[in-house]
TrEMBL record:
The lineage of its organism: Eukaryota, Metazoa, Chordata, Craniata, Vertebrata. It is found in: Membrane. This is TSN3 protein. One of its GO terms (cellular component) is plasma membrane. The chain crosses the membrane at residues 7-30, 50-69, 81-102, 206-228. Keywords: Membrane, Transmembrane, Transmembrane helix. It comes from Polioptila caerulea (Blue-grey gnatcatcher).
């Protein structure tokens, strides 16, 4: 019983810390899909982020109950803690499943959306920096094209092959770059698809592993709470 109380107290403090980790992951995913909303048609893709925020909100009273039960056992608090742990377990399993599946299924959607932006973008070999969605994307991620700069050559018509790419393909440290194909070393080497996929999958995997670790900790908390409940049998049945 003393071990269960000590473990429950420790897990209560851990729940407060993991609530901050869940808030960070949830806000990260929500902001990512908001910033790149022109690439994603479905609005529900940010659902794992909102589930993470809901989980963090419930983790706070769960931590308070776990700490208080380690000091003074109350049948009402023990029952409430069990309900909260069950609710958290459902939320985290849902969030983990969604995060894992979205990481896989958004890859093809991203490639088609970026390809469409590249083919629809009109640019000229001038000093106009451009402020279209694809220009903003390339500057933010320091990338060029879908896979590399050659995507801009394929996007042009068959009889016209420009001698440059949009200036947003230039590396930040080269302020004199104008997208000239004669100086390829001044252009970003990596494509935007891989960079955005890496960011998206990393954030989703962050949520996934947070949920898996939290689920294990909650099972431990449930077992500890069950041990304490076993040592405090019911004396009155009206509470049922």
């Amino acid at each position: 019983r003393s071990f269960a109380q000590s473990l429950l107290r420790f897990l209560g403090f851990v729940f407060w810390g993991t609530a901050a980790a869940q808030v960070f992951g949830g806000v990260w995913i929500i902001l990512m899909f908001k910033n790149y909303r022109y690439l994603f048609q479905e609005s529900y893709l940010s659902l794992p982020g909102w589930l993470a925020l809901a989980t963090a909100l419930i983790l706070l009273p769960t931590g308070v109950l776990a700490v208080s039960l380690s000091v003074k056992c109350s049948r009402n608090q023990q029952g409430t803690l069990m309900y909260l742990l069950l609710l958290l377990l459902c939320l985290e399993m849902s969030s983990a499943a969604l995060a894992r599946s979205y990481c896989v299924r958004t890859a093809s959607q991203l490639e088609s959306a970026m390809g469409y932006l590249v083919h629809q973008h009109n640019w000229t070999c001038s000093q106009d920096p451009g402020n279209s969605s694809v220009d903003v994307l390339q500057r933010k991620l320091q990338c060029c094209g879908v896979h590399n700069y050659t995507d801009w050559l394929k996007a042009s018509s068959s009889w016209y092959h420009p001698a440059c790419v949009p200036e947003s393909c230039c590396k930040e440290k080269h302020s004199h770059c104008r997208g000239d194909l004669g100086h390829v070393e001044l252009l970003s080497e990596e494509g935007c698809l891989k960079k955005l996929e890496d960011q998206l999958c990393f954030s989703m995997l962050y949520i996934f592993w947070c949920c898996i670790v939290l689920s294990i900790l909650e099972l431990l908390a449930g077992v500890s709470n069950g041990i304490l409940m076993r040592h405090q049998p019911f004396h009155e049945l009206h509470i049922l």
